[in-house]
Amino acid sequence: MFERDALPRVLPFACYMAFIAIADLLQRLLGEGVDLRWLYPLKITVVAALLLYYRRRYSELALAWPAGRQLLLALGAGVLVLVLWVNLDADWMLIGHGSGYDPRDAQGQVQWVLVALRIVGAAIVVPVMEELFWRSFLMRWIDEPQFLDAPPAHARLRGFVVAVILFGFEHNLWLAGMVAGLVYGWLYVHSGNLRSPILAHGVTNGLLGLWIVFTGNWSYW
């Protein structure tokens, strides 16, 4: 059974995943020529609205942002995951071969509004939404249904491993996703503060977005 504090952590993530399913369905129904890139801003807007609506229910976000050594650790972890993410890309490390999110028009010109919305969504909204679901909720709920009563520092191995594996298979780069889940999960356990993995996750996604724009590797989005 879910306790009442599960819904604010599950619903934003469920909506995010539902939009992915909707985009896939529309592509199948309407064909490859349909432009579904504007679904992303809509998806991020809906998720952000849910996070704002439930903001008073996220007790862990009332803690201060990491400072000093914890801040450096979170920033370093975010950079480390980025470096590993763009290198763990051998064929056997991928699920499928998606085209990613290509913000160029038919003439090959980058549509910077799409780029900006993508980076903002990935670096600000997604880390909050995913860390609330994967770390704050699922990692602890697997072992303790009253998950808010379970201190991060006392997380059990089963919940930690299951969250890492599922987080990995949420992504096209499944092995990179598992590595990221391992790092963010360790940060959460080590710091006891959900803001640490949120910050690291945001650094990874923000820098990844910049790397994608500068290199043109749109498949990484």
Automatic annotation (TrEMBL):
<feature type="domain" description="CAAX prenyl protease 2/Lysostaphin resistance protein A-like">
    <location>
        <begin position="115"/>
        <end position="206"/>
    </location>
</feature>
<dbReference type="GO" id="GO:0004175">
    <property type="term" value="F:endopeptidase activity"/>
</dbReference>
<feature type="transmembrane region" description="Helical">
    <location>
        <begin position="67"/>
        <end position="88"/>
    </location>
</feature>
<dbReference type="InterPro" id="IPR014346">
    <property type="entry name" value="Prenyl_protease-related"/>
</dbReference>
<keyword id="KW-0472">Membrane</keyword>
<feature type="transmembrane region" description="Helical">
    <location>
        <begin position="38"/>
        <end position="55"/>
    </location>
</feature>
<dbReference type="GO" id="GO:0080120">
    <property type="term" value="P:CAAX-box protein maturation"/>
</dbReference>
<feature type="transmembrane region" description="Helical">
    <location>
        <begin position="7"/>
        <end position="26"/>
    </location>
</feature>
<keyword id="KW-0645">Protease</keyword>
<keyword id="KW-0378">Hydrolase</keyword>
<keyword id="KW-0812">Transmembrane</keyword>
<keyword id="KW-1133">Transmembrane helix</keyword>
<dbReference type="Pfam" id="PF02517">
    <property type="entry name" value="Rce1-like"/>
</dbReference>
<dbReference type="InterPro" id="IPR003675">
    <property type="entry name" value="Rce1/LyrA-like_dom"/>
</dbReference>
<feature type="transmembrane region" description="Helical">
    <location>
        <begin position="198"/>
        <end position="220"/>
    </location>
</feature>
<dbReference type="GO" id="GO:0006508">
    <property type="term" value="P:proteolysis"/>
</dbReference>
<feature type="transmembrane region" description="Helical">
    <location>
        <begin position="108"/>
        <end position="129"/>
    </location>
</feature>
<feature type="transmembrane region" description="Helical">
    <location>
        <begin position="160"/>
        <end position="186"/>
    </location>
</feature>
<protein>
    <submittedName>
        <fullName>CAAX prenyl protease-like protein</fullName>
    </submittedName>
</protein>
